[in-house]
Amino acid sequence: MTSLPPGSQLGTLITLGDLVLNEVDAQGVAWTCASYDGWDSPDARVQFTPREADHGAWAGPVYLSERVITLTGKAVAPDAATLDQAKERLLAAASLTDTVLTVGETVPKQVTVRRSGKPLARPLTPTVLDWSVLLTAADPRRYGADEIVTQLFLPMSSGGLTFPITVPLTISATVVSGDAMLPNDGTIGSRPRILIYGPVSQPSITLTLPDGSTSTLLYGDDIADGDWVDLDCDLRTAYYNSQSSRRSRLSGVWPEVPPGGATLAFRASVYSATARLVASHRSAWM
Fold first, then answer.
1. Which of 195, 148, 152, 206 is nearest to 173 (CA)?
2. Residue 236 gets which letter from DSSP?
3. In whole angstroms, how far apart are CA 99 and each of 73, 95, 180?
4. In the chain, where does the domain assigned CATH 2.60.120.860 lie?
């Protein structure tokens, strides 16, 4: 039995859905997570093809595999009934559907996981539970817990000059006109989700990397007033009003924000004062 008050921290905070580990919860259960194997790095996928009549091999590109994480720990409850309820909360937290797992490091990071093995919940005493859960993140990247939201409007030009449009700042957002720096404090590229709101004709997205190279993604159609196109740069999907696929209207390169960040530019074939782009992304680590 623990004598610590609810809210007492017992180590690095780890959250699995609504379950907080390394803390005493409101029911007086002391949750400890002794290890979280797999958080450091996932496996890698690479293929080597032997060279004919020569030493060595040809190396193919290297990709990260899915991230497999095993959480192990103990739960200490004030009584047997509370421990039984705690066990059920643990089993529910190791969900069959997408669940956010966050580790409170100096920079908190998160992955989206699902249960991928049989959970173990073995009572050591009537008030102490030994537990372990196996989870898998299909996307192996560890993302910053803070989402970065950037809003862009089309630049208004006259006589070859560009005038900025100033609008109120929104929560967690950088609001600028035409161009904005998208930061990435991590170690691997991060793929944003981008919403483009009409009215706008043939909008384009250009990403400028630190070395000066650029890539552009063009939507070769119009977006009506009150409508939008939803671009998922990781899944590489495009939906009009989040319903009808418009993947065939796209040409060019899907943007990915590299470590260190890049500049995003929003343009269109015809100026529209109310057209806007909203990009959401997070810093990403291997």
1. 148
2. T
3. 19, 7, 31
4. 146-285
Residue ranges, comma separated, of all CATH 2.40.30.200 domains in the chain are: 9-140
State yes or no: pLDDT of 174 exceeds 60: no
278 contacts 149 by C-beta, under 8 angstroms: yes
CB-based contact 277:174 (threshold 8 Å)? no
Quick check: helix, strand or coil at residue 247? helix
Res 170 pLDDT > 70: no
**Average pLDDT in the chain:** 92
- Rounded to the nearest 5°, which phi and psi values hold at 119? -70, 150
Rounded to two decimals, the pTM is 0.87
The predicted structure's pLDDT at residue 173: 45
Give the closest residue to 97 by CA, choosing from 83, 109, 114: 114
For every residue of 188-230, DSSP letters joined together read: S-BPPEEEEESSEES-EEEEE-TTS-EEEEEE-SEE-TT-EEE
What's the pLDDT tens digit per position in 7-37?
A: 999 999 999 999 999 999 999 999 999 999 9
pLDDT digits (tens, 9 = 90+) for 242-286: 899 999 999 999 999 999 999 999 999 999 999 999 999 999 999
What is the CA angle 61-137-15, rounded to 5? Answer: 140
| 3 state SS of 83 | helix
Q: Whole-angstrom Cα distance, residue 258 to residue 192?
A: 11
CA–CA dist 76, 10 (Å, integer): 12
Residue type, 135: L
How many other C-beta atoms lie within 10 A of the C-beta of residue 46? 9
Q: How far apart are CA 28 and CA 24, in angstroms?
A: 6
CATH architecture for the domain at 146-285? Sandwich (2.60)
The three-state secondary structure class of 86 is helix
CATH class of the domain at 9-140 = mainly beta
